[in-house]
Design brief:
This protein is of the alpha/beta class. It has ten helices and nine strands. Strands 3-2-1-4-5-6-9 form a seven-stranded parallel sheet, sandwiched between helices. A two-stranded parallel sheet has the order 7-8. The longest helix has 24 residues. It binds NADP nicotinamide-adenine-dinucleotide phosphate.
């Protein structure tokens, strides 16, 4: 919950979902350095409190938080209503999650994931970006993924939800211009955060092998903010840019074959899971 009462908060604010960790936290720090006050949104209260204190002490700006589960209607509504008293000129949508293995095995997980990755994003954009602010220009940053550039077996739903975000963000780039809203969609490749570390623990990512594919947080954050309002989409890193274009021009069948070849080595954990499901289905 925001720390205090119902009054309108002074100053300009950046609302950052997933802002207490990883890419969201890095955006929050960078924006705080420019003098913006920060409103963090995520679920873990201890982390929200700790990061709010840390950023405000270091950067000398106000940092408040809304504890909300954005995979639920209640959490989305709470974020929309409690953010109403802040003059939000930046909206950064970084909260996100990935699917937990073979599409055919993850029966219960798809609705919360679509709610978080897509429904919450649409709802926050629609409510917050149309509010009147003190500033003539507003800014919207959507954190999508390289996985949105092509279909990705074993990350099927994740890549589908991220494709949705990328498509939405790119369309809004032009629509936003007419309304004074700068929109950029960033498609990071591999960045070392809690999310990718969990994947490493599940043997999906081998950091040693993928050393050359790791992006620095600085490349992602500074690069995005530099291009905000100037281009609709940003793929950080030369290697990933090349990969993005390559997968776009190849026939989908070839793209799938290449990704499956790659996944044979790197997505071993998911493959094992898939084989077990296939065996069970044959019995
Ligand atoms: N790391 C990468 O390699 C990579 C690559 C491409 C794209 N991305 C994208 O970058 C974004 C940020 O991920 P990250 O890598 O920075 O990982 P992260 O540190 O795990 O960040 C995810 C954030 O989302 C919040 N979150 C998760 N579920 C939520 C929910 N139901 N309601 C509200 N907040 C929720 C988490 O906080 P709580 O758990 O406290 O709620 C956390 O702060 C994601 O959208 C991800 O898809 C990451």
């Amino acid at each position: 919950m925001p720390k205090n009462e119902n009054t309108t908060k002074p100053g300009r604010w950046a609302l950052v979902t997933g802002g207490a960790s990883g890419i969201g936290y890095a955006f929050a720090c960078e924006l705080a350095q420019t003098g913006l006050n920060i409103l963090l949104v995520s679920r873990r209260l201890d982390l929200l409190k700790a990061k709010a204190t840390e950023i405000s002490t270091r950067e000398g700006v106000f940092v408040e938080y809304i504890q909300a589960d954005l995979s639920t209607e209640e959490g989305i509504r709470k974020t929309i209503s409690e953010s109403d008293k802040f003059d939000i000129t930046y909206l950064v949508l970084s909260a996100g999650t990935y699917d937990q293995g073979s599409f055919f095995s993850a029966v219960d997980f798809h609705i919360p994931m679509i709610m978080l990755n897509n429904v919450s994003a649409v709802s926050l954009i629609k409510h917050i970006m149309i509010r009147k602010t003190s500033h003539s220009r507003k800014n919207l940053i959507l954190v999508s993924s390289m996985a949105s550039g092509s279909p990705v077996p074993y990350f099927s739903l994740y890549s589908a939800t991220k494709s949705f975000l990328t498509s939405l963000g790119c369309s809004l780039y032009n629509e936003g211009k007419a309304l004074g809203i700068n929109v950029i969609t960033v498609l990071p490749g591999l960045v070392k955060t809690d999310m990718s570390t969990t994947l490493a623990q599940r043997e999906v990512i081998n950091y040693k092998k993928m050393f050359f594919y790791q992006l620095s947080m600085r490349t992602v954050i500074k690069g995005t903010l530099k291009r905000l309002g100037k281009q609709p989409i940003f793929v950080p890193g030369i290697g990933y840019k090349f990969l993005f274009i390559f997968f776009r021009i190849l026939p989908v069948r070839w793209t799938l074959s290449i990704i499956m070849l790659f996944s044979k080595r790197s997505f071993a954990a998911y493959r094992r899971e898939h084989e077990l499901i296939a065996q069970a289905a044959q019995r």
